[in-house]
Amino acid sequence: MADGMEAQMLEPARRKMAGAERAQMRRPRKDGWTREQERLFLQTLAMTCNTSEAARVAGVCRTSAYDRRQRNRRFAADWERAMDIGYAEIEAMLMREALFGSESEEILLDGEGSVKSRKIKRGHDLKLALQLLTRHRDRVLAYRTSAAAQKERPDSPAVVRRVRRMVEEVERMRAATGT
Predict the structure, then answer these.
(1) Which helix (H) or strand (E) is 103 found in, with range?
(2) What is the pTM of this model?
(3) Coil/strand/helix, residue 115
(4) Closest to 68 (Cα-Cα) out of 82, 78, 56, 53
(5) Sign of the CA dihedral 86, 92, 97, 100?
(6) Which stretches does the entry tag as region Disordered (predicted)?
(7) What is the DSSP letter of 120?
(8) Whether 132 contacts 93, CB under 8 Å
């Protein structure tokens, strides 16, 4: 009995020395996330960069999405990938907005309801997009510099080598056919 008691007392000390609590594996809940809900969540997250909207579309609780990201490494990686896609869309939208602006049409009607004049206004309303960029910038930049993102990027060395090989093959085929 003394040995059993001693082992129980050593267990917390061992965990403390290891620096973490022991992980407890649980069975997935029957009412938990389905693959379809996960797909919808990640797809919406990539389109909107909005966790609340993605959770609403997927039919899950926003808190459960954050919990799932903490517990599931694959889901966390997919989440980061989706945020990178959404962030790239915001960057592209901001570039289009900065280059071309946006247009809105103002129509003035006279007393009888017929069109008196039309005015086209060009404007640059970037407040919301800039807030989103600022909020997610650190996380997305950290992901983009990670090894996982580097091998997927179109400007990664592996992709550049593959494209160069394809171009060389096309040039060889054209030289062989004389075109």
Answers:
(1) strand 102-109
(2) 0.50
(3) strand
(4) 78
(5) negative
(6) 1-33
(7) E
(8) no
pLDDT tens-place values along the chain, 179 residues long = 455 555 555 555 555 565 555 555 666 566 689 999 999 999 999 999 999 999 999 999 999 999 999 999 999 999 999 999 998 888 888 777 766 777 888 888 888 888 888 888 877 667 767 877 787 788 888 877 776 666 666 677 777 888 889 889 889 988 888 87
Among the residues of 72-146, which ranges form H helices? 73-100, 127-145
Instruction: Count CB atoms within 10 A of the CB of residue 45.
Output: 24
Block residue for tokens 């996380």:
139
25 and 66 Cβ atoms separated by less than 8 Å: no
**Residue with the two structure tokens 């030289």:** 175
For the stretch 131-149, what's the b/e string if a residue is b when 16 or more beta carbons lie within 10 angstroms of its beta carbon? ebbeebeeebeebbeeeeb
In whole angstroms, what is the distance from residue 143 CA to residue 79 CA? 10
